[in-house]
Amino acid sequence: MQASAYRTCLFHPMDPRGAKLGGIETHVRLILSAHPGDFSILFIGVDEFGDCRLGEVRELAIAGREIAFLPVMRVLDSRINLASKTILGSLTLRYALGVLRFLPRIKTLLRGCRASAEYQRYEFAILAKLLGLPNVLMIHTEASKDDEMDSLLKRYWFIHRLNERIAVFLADHVFGVNQNIVERIAHLYPSAAAKTEMMTVSIDTRRFAAQPFDCRDGIFRIVFAGRLDAFKDPPLMFSVLRALYARLDGRLAFHYAGSSDPHRYGEFGPIEHFTIRHGACTSEEVAGIMAQCHAGILTSYFEGMPCYLLECLSTGRPVAAIRLPQFEPLIIDGMSGSLVARTDPAEMCKNALVEAFVTLWQKIQDGSFDPARIHACVEPYSIENQMMRLFARHRVLQEKRTYKRAKTSSISAS
After folding, report:
1. What is the CA radius of gyration of the chain?
2. Residue closest to 61 by CA, chosen among 106, 16, 4, 11
């Protein structure tokens, strides 16, 4: 590992070279590629390709930055994006057991250096504490037990809530990706309020640069990138697109970038003929797809702060979405998109979104939307700003730990 003043041990069950997708994975990859020069990263991950020795460090170059990659388990890349249906099959559990297996090895790699830990899953808080590291927890979701979910969370919600309580207690600092999360943590765990603050996921504003609209063929192109989890409400998304296709007399194309199989939802069949499925894509490929499209769509029941939203806006593409409080500072009517309230019956909600998209398309065609102005909405969330904040917290925690140790040693010596 390279010599640096500071070191962060980053936990997440993915291969930095691999195909695991999602907002958290995008955030983790940005940490790996954009961490400050005075930090080295020890990334504890998984091997998707079967070409690594478990428990052995492999030096990787990520966007010109060197990281130390320590795989603790293997998982086929064809399975990495699938939600588990059983606890024993859970990637999170198997990964945590892998970390425990190689805990002595990790301690050896961190011995004698100033270090801290960061993790995105509650379950990994105990791992950081077992290593004796000051640590940062980042909370990405505000789901409740009544929400639509694909994973085991819904079935074993009490375990999730217990893990949350333990993680918030053990964390030295907590970031929530939206204000609702910060307020919920302060309400549930008042003693943690002082160490909790909001910081969204980040966006590479240079990779996702503002692009001009191309409307020459008269086809309205809408894009969605990410997993089609149940909480994203794909049935509503697909129903909106079907109605919009009819409204525009077939002058609509839907671009989907992601590895999920949309056929699991019956509503996909009627829109398949005007859908372009790009499959799993790199960030560079997603940026290229978004540049070819005109607008984004979000129909989620809940969200943290979706990377897809920031990527769309950064590319200069307006988004029509179901209203969530964290979207309101970003999706501004007439400037960067349109927000529609979720209503009952759902038919009203669908119709409102169709009308929102019709209006967006008209404004895009007449030049009312300025991609550069839309791009400016996400500048505060750029990796330059966000990484500076994130690693400033790691510096403080590491220096505080170093000071405490030095003070303890001084007292013992006297």
Report:
1. 22
2. 16
The two structure tokens encoding residue 51: 């070409």
Residue 355 contacts residue 395 (beta carbons within 8 Å):
no
Cβ neighbours of 49 (radius 10 Å): 12
Fold classified for 6-202+383-413: Rossmann fold (3.40.50)
Torsion of CA 60, 63, 67, 69, to 10 degrees: -50
Residue 268 has φ and ψ, to the nearest 5°, of -75, -30
CA distance linking residue 387 with residue 401, whole number of Å: 21
Lowest-pLDDT choice from 1-15, 53-67, 215-229: 1-15
Q: Rounded to an integer, what distance in angstroms lies between the CA atom of residue 61 and that of residue 4?
A: 16
Count CB atoms within 10 A of the CB of residue 374: 24
Distance CA(71)–CA(117), nearest Å, equals 16
Tell me the per-residue pLDDT of 160-181, one tens digit each, with 9 for 90 and over: 889 999 999 999 999 999 999 9
C-alpha span between 403 and 247 (Å, rounded): 66
Cα gap 110→114, rounded to integer Å: 8
Write the pLDDT tens digit of every residue in 49-91: 999 999 999 999 998 889 999 999 998 765 555 555 555 568 8
Sign of the torsion angle spanned by Cα atoms 161, 25, 87, 129:
negative
CATH number of 220-376: 3.40.50.2000
Indicate the Cα dihedral angle 169, 110, 202, 282, nearest 10°.
Answer: -130
Specify the amino acid at residue 37. Answer: G
Contacts of 88 (CB under 8 A, 6+ apart): none
Q: List strands edge to edge, sheet with 319-322.
A: 275-279, 252-257, 220-225, 295-298, 319-322, 337-340
Tokens of 369: 């939307």
Domains 6-202+383-413 and 220-376 share a fold: yes
pTM above threshold 0.90: no
Domain boundaries, the chain: 6-202+383-413, 220-376
